[in-house]
Every structure is written in C-alpha cells, then in structure tokens.
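Render this sequence as a predicted structure.
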Amino acid sequence: MPTATTATPSVLVKVGPEALLAEIQAGRHTYLIDEPVAVGGQDRGPTPYDLLLSALGACTAITLRLYASQKHWPLEGIEVRLRHQRVHRHDCEKCEQAGEMLEEIQKELCLLGPLTPEQRQRLQLISEKCPVQKTLTSGALRVVTTVVG
C-alpha cells in the first residue's frame, strides 16, 4: 500500500539559514517565494499570501471557464482580482482579544463577453463553488504537523 507521501503529489519548501527566500518544488516545477524588503526579505518572488490568492483566483477562473464551456455560454475571458486583509469584526467591543479579527479576501470578477445578466449572476454563484474556495471556507481544514529526521 502506498504511503501518503508517495500516493499524493507533494510540495517541498526549502529555506536557508539566513534569508526569508523559499525555494519551492511542486512536481517538476521550481519557483521562489519571498517577503518584501520592508519585512526582511529580498522581494525575489511573490509572498505566501500572493500564492494563496493566486490559487484561489486560478481555481475560480478555471471553474468558471469549465462551467461556461459546458453551457456553451459566450464567456470570452475571465479576470479575477483578489485582495487579502485582516479586519475587526463588525461592531466589535473587544477587538484586542483573541479571535476578534477576521481574515477577509475580496474577490472581484470581470466576466468578458456578451453574457446576459442572468448568466453573469449564475457565474458569480458558481465562482463561490470552486474547490479552493470551498476548502478555505469549509471550517473543516486540518493541518497535521510532524517532525521528521
């Protein structure tokens, strides 16, 4: 029986002893993740949050493309703009206490092509069903950490 490390694709992240620069190996792809100079990085790649937003945006756009193609809708292109921020809960009186901050991602869709208003509305609803968004918002995501070596 295959182990979890051989049965599913994995990502390897390597960071050296000094810099915040991370080298990522994902399958046969290698790329860099870094932090801005202002926080001690070298700005040689996107930040971890940039990649999180990229994953959500790509998944959203791909989901919309698949759906529109299946329906034979005239969706000529998709642009997804994302922003991440931490916000205080609305009307919060105890915002300094743990659990009183919310993580928020703002997702803006630009749907190109001669779509009807009903098609645009349906695509907005479908965009919220992309697998990455469902994973992020499910509340059931668990990260299991072990130390090896």
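Summary. The first strand starts at residue 11 and ends at 15. The chain has four helices and five strands.
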